[in-house]
Structures are given as C-alpha cells and as structure tokens.
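Service request form, structural biology core

Requester: graduate student, group of Dr. S.
Request type: structure prediction, single chain
Budget code: on file
Notes: please return the result as structure tokens.

Sequence provided:
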Amino acid sequence: MRHTVGIDIGSTYTKAIVVNGDRTILGSAIQPTGFRLSEVAETVCADAVAEAGLDRDQLDYYVATGYGRHQAADSDLKVTDLTAAARGATLLFPGTRTILDVGGQTMKASRLTDETKVKSFRLNDKCAAGTGAFLEKTARYMGYSTEEIGPLVATSKEPISISGVCAVFAESEVINHLSQGVAPADIMHGAIVSLVGRSVQLMKRVQMEPEFTLIGGILRFQTMARVARETLETDVNVPPDGLVQFVPALGAAILGQLRLETLAGERPARNPNPVSA
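Core staff response, request fulfilled:
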C-alpha cells in the first residue's frame, strides 16, 4: 500500500495528513505556523506520520501546499492551496462547484469545472475585516480567547450590525457598541454576519454556483456555516468536525496518490468517503 503525506503551511497554522492508496486518512497533525516555517513543517509532518503508525521512510510521496510551501525542502511536489483545496473538497463532496476558504489571514473563493479544475478565483488578503483575524481580534478586544468564540456566539439573542468595510472602522463600531452596553455575544454574532457578507460578495465575483463547500479554520464555529446557509438561502457543505482545517492538506496528499498512480500507469482509485483508520 502506498502512503502519501500532504502538508499545508498556512499563515496561521500548519497542517499535515497521511493517506493510503484507498484515500483513507491514517494520521493528521496541526501546529501554529510561527516564523520558523521549515522547522514547523518538519515537526507537523513527523507528528502526522507517527500518528499513522508509520516511519518516515515508508512515505512514498510528499506534497506541500499553502503560502509557505516552498519552505518544505523535502517535498516531492509543491502545489497552490487553490489546487489542493479543490482536490480535498471534491473528495469529501464530489458535487462541489464553489469553494469558500476562510483562514486566519486570507479569504479565498474559487469556482471549479466538472473535472475539479479551478476555473476562476478571487482572494481577499488586503484587509483583516475579510478574514478570520477580524473575529479573533474582536474576541480579544472584548476579553475572550479564540476558543471561546463558538460558545460565546451560541448565547447571542440577536446579531448587532457591524457595517465597517475595513478592520479599523469595524473595530470602532465594536468599541461603540460595547460603550452602549451591547452584549459581547451579539457583537460577536454581528462580526460573523459581517464576515459572511464579505464572503458572499467574494463568491459572487467568481460567479458562484452550487454545490457550495466551506472550509478553513473559521468554519470551526458552527454559527459561520449557519449564517452562510441563511444568506445564500441554500445548503452548504462543511467538512466533518476535525477536517474543516485540513482540506488543502488532504487534497495535497491525494495529489500525491494521483502522481504515483500516473507514474505507475494505473487507473486512479476512488474513495468518496475518506475516514480515519
């Protein structure tokens, strides 16, 4: 059985996944990226391989993606995170045609062809108000950690409007709402609604079409997906708990399997429902 590892060196977190030839997930690992990209890549890769119960020399192919992919010196192949996300999303949800990836520092929307190729894409990496960093900064300003965002929003009775088009103006609105005694939960809920609104605008720019698949660390918060469903007035795919941050890493590992199959002249294997062994 062939084993491949996909590693996604993101701006906030670095993730790795090990899969076998049946597309079964054997191991995974995640750590904050920090500033020593090559070191964290090596550590996260080693952790995922260990969880899979393998030795490093049992890996047949190593594919790196993410903004720091060029720091993965030992990788056999480097691919863009858009390409990797497309592979990962369509493995989990074969009908995916539009992907929204909301990370800590960037937001990306892409539309796919029937052959899972990226047909068009747009990025929002110029302003923190369009990324997960805005939610995290809002939470910190109110005295909450990132891990407390989900439970906090769950207690909201009604989202408060946050209309600022940039992080600076939006933060001013947050300060104003707090001074007026607005509940932090409602402010946090409003921040998520604001972020979803920017997300949908980005998706419209790629001429979005269903099925919609939402990925990225911010989708850990169930309110994000719920508000997206309400805004789009249709259902959206969200990877099962624990995989939402790993989709590009999963896609990179799958691309490794495809490369090995191509080199061997084999027909690609398919497993539409990868699960941990």
